[in-house]
Design goal:
heterodimer, A: mainly alpha, globular, B: mainly alpha, 2 domains, about 55% helix, rod-shaped, transmembrane helix (chain B), transport (chain B), respiratory chain (chain B)
Chain lengths: ~140, ~80
């Protein structure tokens, strides 16, 4: 409809999105939570358009920033995910430089919400149980 | 003592045949998936994302990291 503001949809496909997922989660937390709470009230597709536009804009902004600052590591990581059935545990070697680049340039860390207190996050363990043959 | 090379011909044949089958199967899977290994253990989420990839790039395994869709600029 013409009266709604126009927001360009996110053009990223599944692998780069999965690579950037935790960063989108920490950067866009408030907008994502607003949208989810709004949708929890009413699952009608036309209901949460404003919050949805905010989510899209935030994610688009983050992807643009990541591409400007960390393009090589980002592309390497999602290229690796594509070769490996999009499983994170098989791409730790590419994930480490990406995480350090994003931390330096954009200040975002990958926080895994369900980790028990006192345990290192899965992506930081030196010798995980489930791993590739080559680290 | 001379080695019985005639007896090893069937073994060699079997190994070659299995090898060729495996090679061609791998080639065919990779050709269908744009040079990448096929995806497995797909859940509903993965199927939806793959359908979305198809709409964005025209192929189930096509990937792009553009922030916006260049042609369409409609809101939801």
């Amino acid at each position: 409809p013409q009266e709604l503001p126009k927001v360009a949809e996110l053009g990223t496909t599944s692998a780069p999105l999965k690579s950037a997922a935790f960063f989108i989660g920490s950067h866009c937390k408030e907008y994502n939570e607003d949208f989810m709470l709004c949708k929890a009230e009413n699952r009608d597709p036309g209901h949460c358009l404003k919050e949805g536009r905010r989510v899209t804009r935030c994610a688009t902004e983050l992807i643009t920033k990541m591409r400007e600052n960390c393009l090589a590591q980002f592309e390497a990581h999602w290229g690796c995910l594509e070769q490996n059935n999009q499983q994170y545990y098989r791409c730790r070697a590419e994930e480490r430089p990406l995480n350090s680049c994003v931390f330096e340039k954009l200040g975002l860390t990958k926080v895994i919400p369900g980790t028990p207190q006192g345990q290192k996050q899965i992506n930081e363990i030196g010798s995980p149980v489930l791993a590739r043959q080559q680290k | 003592m001379p080695i019985p090379w005639e007896a090893l011909i069937p073994s060699g044949l079997m190994i070659t045949m299995f090898g060729v089958t495996g090679f061609l199967a791998n080639l065919s899977f990779r050709a269908q998936n744009q040079g990448k290994p096929p995806r497995y253990h797909l859940e509903r989420w993965d199927e939806i994302m793959i359908a979305r990839d198809y709409r964005l790039t025209g192929h189930n395994r096509g990937q792009t990291s553009d922030p916006v869709i260049p042609s369409a600029t409609d809101s939801k």
